[in-house]
Structures are given as structure tokens and as C-alpha cells.
Amino acid sequence: MLKLFGKSTSINVRKVLWACAELNIPLSHEQANGDDVQHLNPNALVPVIDDAGFVLWESNSIIRYLANREQAGWLYPAVAAQRARVDQWIDWQAADLNRTWSYAFMALVRRSPAHDDPAQIRASVQNWNCSMEILDRQLAVTGGHAVGAQFSLADVPVGLSVNRWYETPIDHPDLPNVRAYYERLAERPGYQAFGRNGTP
Known about the structure:
By secondary structure, this protein is of the alpha+beta class. It contains seven helices and four strands, in the order E-H-E-E-E-H-H-H-H-H-H. The chain folds into two domains: 2-69, Glutaredoxin (3-Layer(aba) Sandwich); 80-193, Glutathione S-transferase Yfyf (Class Pi), Chain A, domain 2. It has helices at 11-23, 59-69, 80-108, 118-142, 155-167, 176-185, 189-194; strands spanning 2-5, 27-30, 48-51, 54-57. It has a four-stranded mixed beta sheet, with helices on one face. Helix 3 (80-108) runs antiparallel to helix 4 (118-142), helix 3 packs parallel to helix 5 and helix 4 packs across helix 6. The radius of gyration is 17 Å and the shape is globular.
């Protein structure tokens, strides 16, 4: 059975939990922190999986691996151009969207003493909202999900990020396509369990 290590409050661990729910993959989940997995991941970060001795870390690598393992073309297409579009939005979440929210989230949700500069909080919120406007425009084009009309693997990291945005106590501009997307994802049992569950 697939083993997952990492606390379920972690947004990156929740990516794996939600992906497993979509793929109907049974797993054993150990609530572990970074120090607990340093022997498996030299970065001492979660999530980490152990799939019959195959150890893998980095959440987006894990969800791609699981979709490939299950040959889930409906979730992660085999056609190169279609897969590249899914990868583009997975990477956008990791490289661009994550970077905008970091300071504000640490200040307003984690209450980190190292993130108490009001100017940096305002800048982070502004940049975060700008990124969400990019997503709103994308959803206006697709009419459904991050990449197209149908749910894809990209919606796992992007959808969790949308939940984090709504759960963080900031002023949220009116983004009707993002709101409709949020409600659409809430129809999925995996998102109810691991996304829109009250955890930022």
C-alpha cells in the first residue's frame, strides 16, 4: 500500500490526499513533520511517499507520478500539447502564485513574528490578488477549470490555492469566475475532504 508522510494541515500534503481521492488510491497516511522524514527527504520537508520502496518527494512530482502510475489520461493527458498545458498551470501555482501569498499568509494565518511588516503584508496581498485576477481571466476563457472545461491534475494545486485565498483574512476583490470555480470544485468529494474543509 502507498505510504504518505506529512501533516494533513499542509497544503502540499493535501495535494497528494486529494489526488489519491480522485484516483481511488488506497494509502496509509502518517502524520509526520519535516524532521520525521529527513531520512527520506534531505530537505526535511513533507510530503513524502513510499510506494513499495520507491520514495518520492515534492508534491507536484508526487501527484504527476500517481496520475502516470494509474494511467489516468482523463486527469493528466498523454498527448504532449495537452499535458504541457496542465503542467503549465501546475508550475504557475508553484512558481508564481505561491510566491505572491507567502508573506501575507505567514503574517495573517501563521502569525509569524518574522512577517510583521505592514508594507510587505500589503504588497503581498496586492500581488496575491493580481495573481488571482490572472486565474479569473483564465477561467473566463476555459469556462470551467484551470486548463479547460474538464477537471485536470492542474486543478488540484490551483484549487487548493483558491481555498487558501478565500480562507485568509484579506480583502478579496469580486472575481466571479474564481467564485464559480470554487463552488464547482466543492461538488467533488475529494475537495470537500481535503480542500474546502476549513483549513487555509
